[in-house]
Structure formats: structure tokens, C-alpha cells
Specification:
Elements lengths: L6 H11 L1 H4 L2 E7 L2 E6 L14 H20 L6 E9 L9 E10 L3 E10 L5 E10 L9
Antiparallel strand pairs: 1-2, 2-4, 3-6, 4-5, 5-6
């Protein structure tokens, strides 16, 4: 299955359907192999001690897989997370953008499974890993 969006088109769609958080995330790469997204970190993403909060890292993983699924199935805003596992591996650098590398492991008619590694920008050691499953809404009768 090819791409339903290019990076710019997908970014525009995310701004349309998730305007409240869309400016937090930047698509840096989108191709047949996967996606690279960046969390634009500011003070609201930090927890005491200056590190990036777990909820911010989880949001990056979730948006990464959501965007990756949409890049394949198109304008289907109601695709939803049905399962998530998250491993925190090391403390991310505070105030440094986080970069997520996502890839699809399975894309079926009803479910998509993706894997994400998250890094502090400039550091090759992952700070977190997540696997997520998304439910894909059924196609409406009479649509392709």
C-alpha cells in the first residue's frame, strides 16, 4: 500500500483534526519505510528536575503512530488507539527536542500495529520505546 499523504499534506491534516496539539509535533520524514517526528519541547513539557515528562513522551509516540497510520489509510480521523505499551529506558535531555522513529509492523483492514523509538535529538541512545495498536474504522458502504 502506498502513501495517502506526503509529509506536508499529512501535517496540514493533523492541524485540521488536532489543532490543539498539532504545533507540538513536526513531521521530519515520511516515506514507505516509516516516519520521523519531532516534539517541539517547551517548559510545559518538562517535569520537576528539568526532564521531559512521561505524558509528553507518550503523546509523541501516540501521534507518531497515528500519523503513520493516516499516511497509509488517508483522511480517517477516527482511527483510535486500542492498545499501548511503553518502556522508559533512560532520562531524556531536558529542553532538547525529542525525535521519534516510527514504523508499521502490520496494517490490516481493522487494526494497525506500529513501533516507535524515541531519542533526545543528537543522542543515538533511545530514551523510550512504544508499541501501539490502532483500530481502523470500517469503510462506509459504497466507498473505496
Amino acid at each position: 500500500m502506498g502513501l495517502a499523504f506526503d509529509a506536508a499534506g499529512l501535517g496540514d491534516y493533523l492541524h485540521e483534526v488536532f489543532a490543539e496539539v498539532a504545533n507540538d509535533f513536526v513531521i521530519e520524514r515520511l516515506d514507505e519505510d516509516g516516519i520521523t517526528m519531532r516534539l517541539v519541547v517547551d517548559d510545559r513539557h518538562l517535569r520537576p528536575g528539568g526532564t521531559i515528562s512521561g505524558p509528553s513522551m507518550f503523546a509523541l509516540a501516540d501521534v507518531t503512530i497515528y500519523a503513520l497510520v493516516l499516511s497509509r489509510i488517508g483522511r480517517e480521523a477516527l482511527a483510535v488507539t486500542t492498545n499501548a505499551s511503553f518502556d522508559f529506558m533512560r532520562k531524556p535531555a531536558g529542553g532538547t527536542p525529542l525525535v521519534a522513529e516510527g514504523k508499521l509492523l502490520k496494517l490490516g483492514r481493522q487494526l494497525a500495529v506500529g513501533d516507535v523509538l524515541i531519542y533526545s535529538q543528537g543522542d543515538p541512545r533511545p530514551v523510550a520505546r512504544s508499541t501501539m495498536t490502532y483500530a481502523i474504522p470500517p469503510k462506509k458502504v459504497g466507498t473505496a
